[in-house]
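ok so for the tutorial part 2 we go from a plain amino acid sequence to predicted structure tokens. step 1 is just haveing the sequence, like this:
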Amino acid sequence: MKIKIGKKSKSNGVQNGEALKQRSLQAHEKHRGKIEVIGKVSLKDLHDLAVYYTPGVAYPSLAIKDNKDLSYIYTSRGNRIAILTDGSRVLGLGNIGPEASLPVMEGKALLFKKFGNVDAIPLAVDAETTAEIVAIAKAIAPTVGGINLEDIASPKCFEIFDILQKELSIPVFHDDRQGTAVVALAALENSLKIVGKDIKSVRIVINGAGAAGIGISQLLLAAGAENIILCDTRGIIYKGRNDNMNQLKETISEHTNKNGLKGQLQDAVKGADVLIGASNKGAFSERLIKSMGSRSIVFALANPDPEIGYEDAKSAGAEIVATGASGVPNQINNMLAFPAIFRGALDAEARKINTAMLIAAAGALASSISKSKLNAEHIIPNFNDDDIDEITAEIAASVAKAALDTGVARAANVDTAEIKKSVRQGLKRYLNLEKAASKVGAEKFLNMLMKKKP
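step 2 — the prediction. this is what the tokens look like for a chain of 454 residues:
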């Protein structure tokens, strides 16, 4: 399964600017959003009505009453998640509010379905405090098999995540934090293979101490990195710093910057092996890149515009460069991770998504590129050249197995071969439905489905 990018421009490989604006507005208006709900079964007569609704529906309801876990068997809960946001930090748009976040959340739901066969419900909520959002998440938990926290401002997003991780028995995932970290770790693993360095010995500088920066730092530490320096707008974060600190920065300072270096970004970067940006457009200069050590690796992940462009970083001497931009090599895109991670968590009926599952996902993603294809311009899969459904299957199976191995799976056993087969079939089935719907039109296609026998 591959993605067709469409008409390209010289700047970034995809249609952009005013043309893209008009096309996007027209398309969203025409379709009135990007997702809908359709039935899995047909209601062709009174017998069907009796089975799927009253009086037959009472029997699964009574069974679930006695055993709540049966909701994963008798309903769609086991394949349904909520995408929960307050719209306080959406893409590169900032605090635009819940209503304005809906196009993004619907797009996210579309990606969950297309690349993971996961049914995702956008929930953009009018809530401002941590307590309010936590209460909403707890209230909807019986309806879903997991919750994806999306585009919530830092540090509130961390507070919400930590509380829900402890108090809910369904997986809670923070894509800005964990999804970005998984793809970054996978890309770094492959980059280090190319330059012949080890994650335990390299010096890694991360610029940006929001959700993505903290998340990447935490996962790299868990994966074995021993020398990480984290920077924010005030410069290097170190243990005992008082300026512009919060609990998250205090905690991460206990595990990073082991030599207690002080100063600004340029002081941290001098001689570094790896520079990862989770900050703002233009934060990295060519001079900064030139000050790095030999065979340097630069990930400029600011969205929608990177800290430094791909070509500029390469011309400054970086051996391997990745950005969040399309149209250039090595796009670090969360889309490679979150559908597959949730697919695996749901298939294992996991109670949570833990660090071991994230590391397993990163490992499977990194391994999806064979040694013969691995090079400085191909450290991570992309949607034009790689078989995404196969990659999703491998990641999902690895995540499910890690859930079982770490004791967070409700499922008594995880058959990785069966999960891979199921993922391939599910994605193929969805792709076929998508093609059929596009040919005949959504309304006509829905009518066709309702007339089919179960």
